[in-house]
Design goal:
This protein is of the alpha+beta class and about 270 residues long. The chain contains 4 helices and 8 strands; from the N terminus they run ααβββββααβββ.
Amino acid sequence: MIGGPHARHAAELAPLALALAVACASRGPSPPARSFDTAGAAAPPAAAVPPPATTGATTEHAPPAPAPPASAEPALNAAPAPVGPAPPPTEQRLAELRETYSAPRHRPSLLDEPARPARVAPGRYRCAVSREYRLRTCLVEKDDAGRTLLTVEEGNLIAVRGVLYDDGPVVRFEGWLTEQRPFGCFTCQERCFVDPSGCVCQELAAEASRRCVGQPMKAELRGAGAHWRGPLHHTHYWNRYEGDGPNRHVVGYETTAERYELRLEGRSR
């Protein structure tokens, strides 16, 4: 029957069906359905994970610390950190160096004896120590006691001062080193002693340097008038090493006896 209760019910539902159809048309097409495989599905994006719930007052969280680089992993055979006293400060090392500079120099016994004659006349000469060095000014003079003194000034390979005296056919010289850092008594520049970390060379032991600066300097001169020459004896001090490559290290010091020609030329009054 067309006019029965069913017809009246359909008429009542018609407006509701029309409203639902209009609403669905305004939302556009539905997105495709996704299926989730619980056995091997990828995890949802991190942004989809809600932050943990907090209670009480809101606090500010620091960002997570980055993972340490691979090089930060401790080595299995890493050497232990050095243990022991720290190296002496610069002031202390400078004091040790100055003490070496002021070590006693040789004093000839001739300075405490009566004067002896010397055939080398007083005056200014041109002198050289070693044939590789050019002639430089040096001085022969008499002291108050009448001793004859020779001074070979700095600028030569070795600078010395001492006493000249006749001994048969030769004129002998006995004196001392006058430079603060004499040749053969130090192996590095001064800055390397103060701060060894900045140098590749290793300074001579302080004991060796003190012995070196205190050595007697002796020579035997032959000649006549304003021309004299002969060997000047000098002891050179060296570090003694053991080991090879990175294991090479200083174990003491050694010496070599050297002879350099000492020349006096062209006296001028």
